[in-house]
Amino acid sequence: MFWPEFGRYGRVWSPWREMERLQQDVNRLLLRETPYASTFPAVNIWASDQDVIVEAELPGIDPGNLDITVAENVLRLTGSRKPDALKPGEVSHRQERARGEFTRSFRLPYAVDSGKVDASYERGILTVRLPRAEADKPRKIEIRSQQR
């Protein structure tokens, strides 16, 4: 802008507002360059006294390109989506589906038995069941008393 002090709608130019606008522009540029924002894949997480269930939306991703790890009460989901292959003579007209690598990590609400974690993938939904560790399950404590 040639006369920044007159700004839009008659506002006085502010270096702070200008820095915020610049930061937004940089963020937009970087998110366009990186295939996945920190919110991919979208997930739902449920917890009960017995286990934690994590469902992740991963349409079009080969389950062989996914890695699931559990360490120190953190579930980490990493993977990648390969770019669509173009046939000879084809040119991409529009690409909105993200591709590339992604990582999501989730702190679990309690200790889980990593040896009993089960994962399945059906119709683009990854479901991970993480059973609660026996040592961490709530248990009823019997109270001893001399009274009858």
Task: Please provide a written account of the structure.
With 148 residues, the chain is an alpha+beta fold. It has two domains: 4-33, no CATH class; 43-83 and 100-136, Sandwich (Immunoglobulin-like). The chain is 13% helix and 31% strand. It is built from one helix and seven strands; from the N terminus they run αβββββββ. The chain has one helix at residues 15-33; strands spanning 43-47, 51-57, 66-71, 74-81, 100-107, 118-122, 125-131. The strands form two sheets. The chain has a four-stranded antiparallel sheet with strand order 1-2-7-6, with no helix packed on it. Strands 3-4-5 form a three-stranded antiparallel sheet, with no helix packed on it. Strand 6 (118-122) and strand 7 (125-131) form a beta hairpin. The longest helix is centred in the first third of the chain and has 19 residues, at 15-33. The mean pLDDT is 83.
Number of helices in the DSSP assignment = 1
CATH class of the largest domain: Mainly Beta
Largest sheet, spatial ordering of strands: 1-2-7-6
Q: What kind of assembly state do the chains in view correspond to? A: single chain
Total domains: 2
Q: How would a textbook summarize the main sheet?
A: 4 strands, antiparallel
- Outline the low-pLDDT stretches: none
Proportion in β-strands: 25-35%
Could you tell me the number of beta strands? 7
At the fold tier of CATH, the topology name of the largest domain is: Immunoglobulin-like
Order of helices and strands: HEEEEEEE
Amino-to-carboxy terminus distance: 88 Å
- The coarse overall form would be flat
Rg over alpha carbons: 25 Å
CATH architecture of the largest domain: Sandwich
- The chain-level mean pLDDT equals 83
Q: Approximately how much helix is present in the residues?
A: 10-25%
